């Protein structure tokens, strides 16, 4: 499997309100599911405050490390919405009123019976060279520059923007997975599972304890791979190991 | 206000299952609320995969930048639980079986009628010099070394560990906040709000759009400060601004 089969992504969540606890993020998990479904490996997430140095620093670190960076938050009309400024700064390009964004926002303001004022004009500032990312929910566009896709923080708007860009993203070979309920304690399968993981290097084997319907400790084992045959071989090994352990220890 | 009044923190979430979307993180928001209540500024969050280079890199970046780093996840008994190894590596200390952790885990294994095997022994490995962080929920301890506090990923266990360390944390002057419902669109208050924010530099003013009970666009304005008098002055300015705008535009 060549490295070109793997497409990676990071998410950068921008907003004091997430870090203060006032707003609970719902975007990380949504984008994680979305990337997995597309065949893109989400490798890292960062949450930073509405602070230029913090946003620019995180953005530059992430955009040099991964195929795509998705940002959420900070593209509204108020003084604390500084994402566009930060991205322009990170790319070293000017921030300009984008004629199509101005047209979209002006039409929308007229329809709502409000004025196209200085605050709303803030939302039409796009880093030079960036393409608009339309959204059918609230109108105000996000943008895509280089490998960075800037989206709103409001979940419904972010979803619309992700749907807009998804068909244009490069995607990799999809990771497939199998989940096996161990009916065993994690501590009783750990050693054997580690040996299986070592023997099946093209798979990723995860172990996730949970409390089952009887209120007892139980474990889900998840095997992931881009190769169906290797996934099946690891699954067979895990199932044989679980049968051995149950024969030895009896049911939990 | 001196800089010693400000205590900062970062959260490092470790786990493939968060990045694949399989598990939805519930710890970030919980820790954010907890830090705010304690008077500690949560400044950054990162989520990384179960990969040594990724964990060590993030940990070193965060522990040099903030007063405290709280990690969640990766301290279970299986091969994909590599947090203790990574923290030992980051601090340049050996990872050792901690006698008290061994005693706790052995007693627990005996009570459950299971064996103290190699997998469970993994959970007693603590970076040399680290102190145990007890948990009354599942028994298995976390640990505290330098300015890094390592906790479980399972929310109920993490909560117990946070309660255990909270009384020992240095805390700063608490941030206080006032929330004002604008009854106005964000785009109609943005310009004026920006001017108020500039005129009140010891406050942090955030603007958060929401859909109200009539289904229309509305905005919450949140003013935060460590100084009650400065908070009150900014609040008065915001309320006067909202009254002016309502007089001009009528109700939304």
Report on the architecture of this protein.
2 copies of one chain form a homodimer. By secondary structure, chain A is α/β, with parallel strands linked by helices. The first copy, chain A, folds into 2 domains: 3-168, MoaB/Mog-like domain (Molybdenum Cofactor Biosythetic Enzyme, Chain A); 176-249, Ribosomal Protein S8, Chain: A, domain 1 (2-Layer Sandwich). Chain A has 9 helices and 11 strands. In chain A, a hairpin with a 5-residue loop joins strand 10 and strand 11 (217-225). In chain A, helix 3 (52-65) crosses helix 4 and helix 8 (186-199) runs antiparallel to helix 9. The two termini of chain A are 40 Å apart. The mean pLDDT of chain A is 94. At the A-B interface, helix 1, helix 2, strand 2, helix 6 and helix 8 of A face helix 1, helix 2, strand 2, helix 6 and helix 8 of B.
Which series of helices and strands of chain A comes N to C? EHHEHEHEHHEEEEHEHEEH
> Treating each run of at least 4 consecutive H or I residues as one helix, how many helices of chain A?
9
Largest interface: A-B, 66 and 67 residues
Oligomer: homodimer
CATH superfamily of the largest domain in chain A: MoaB/Mog-like domain
Radius of gyration of chain A: 23 Å
Q: What fraction of the residues of chain A are assigned to beta strands by DSSP?
A: 15-25%
The whole-number mean of residue pLDDT values of chain A reads: 94
Domains of chain A, number: 2
Side-by-side strand order of the widest sheet of chain A = 2-1-3-8-7-6
Which overall shape of chain A is indicated by the principal axes computed on the Cα atoms? Answer: elongated
CATH topology name of the largest domain in chain A, in short, is Molybdenum Cofactor Biosythetic Enzyme, Chain A
CATH architecture of the largest domain in chain A: 3-Layer(aba) Sandwich
Distance between the termini of chain A: 40 Å
How many extended strands of chain A? 11
Parts with pLDDT < 50 across at least 5 consecutive residues of chain A? none
Helical content of chain A stands at: 40-55%
The description of the largest β-sheet of chain A is: 6 strands, mixed
**What's the level 1 CATH class of the largest domain in chain A?**
Alpha Beta
Assign the structural class of chain A, choosing from mainly alpha, mainly beta, alpha/beta, alpha+beta, or little secondary structure: alpha/beta
């Amino acid at each position: 499997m060549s490295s070109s089969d793997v497409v990676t992504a990071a998410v950068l969540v921008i907003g004091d309100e997430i870090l203060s606890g006032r707003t609970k993020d719902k975007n990380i998990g949504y984008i994680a599911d979305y990337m997995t479904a597309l065949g893109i490996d989400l490798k890292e997430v960062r949450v930073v405050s509405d602070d230029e140095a913090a946003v620019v620093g995180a953005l530059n670190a992430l955009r040099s490390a991964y195929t795509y960076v998705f940002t959420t938050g900070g593209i509204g009309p108020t003084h604390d919405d500084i994402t566009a400024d930060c991205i322009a700064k990170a790319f070293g390009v000017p921030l300009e009123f984008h004629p199509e964004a101005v047209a979209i926002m002006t039409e929308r303001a007229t329809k709502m019976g409000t004025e196209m004022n200085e605050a709303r004009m803030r939302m039409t500032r796009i880093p030079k060279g960036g393409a608009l990312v339309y959204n059918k929910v609230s109108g105000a566009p996000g943008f895509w520059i280089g490998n960075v896709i800037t989206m709103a923080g409001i979940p419904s708007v972010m979803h619309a923007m992700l749907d807009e860009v998804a068909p244009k993203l490069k995607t990799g070979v999809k990771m497939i997975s199998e989940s096996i309920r161990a009916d065993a304690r994690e501590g009783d399968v750990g050693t054997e599972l580690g040996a299986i993981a070592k023997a099946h290097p093209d798979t990723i084997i995860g172990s996730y304890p949970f409390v089952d319907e009887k209120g007892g400790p139980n474990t889900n084992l998840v095997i992931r791979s881009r190769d169906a045959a290797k996934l099946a071989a690891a699954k067979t090994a895990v199932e044989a190991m679980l049968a051995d352990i149950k024969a030895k220890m009896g049911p939990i």
